[in-house]
Amino acid sequence: MIRVILPAHLRRLASIDGEVKLEVEGAATQRSVLDALETAYPMLRGTIRDHDTKRRRAFIRFFACEEDLSHEDLDAALPAAVAAGAEPYLIVGAMAGG
Fold this sequence. Notes:
CATH topology: Ubiquitin-like (UB roll)
Helix content: 10-25%
Oligomer: single chain
Largest sheet: 5 strands, mixed
Strand order of the largest sheet: 2-1-5-3-4
């Protein structure tokens, strides 16, 4: 069971209260978690990743075990603590400005 924490605007869009718990087929990777999330909550398709390229949207970041995974390979295994459900996978809305 993978625990996912979403930013408030995406929780509101998907009518989610709190964190999401997902069953992931096969290895626990960023891709498999995002695929499972978009399958469970189709209204989130296109909000985290581009519909066609599946690339991370600008101003969206991914974190696990206090590490920024935003630029890591989507098919790399997630940390064991995340795969075991002990630590959450965080999807964070980034901010920019001057």
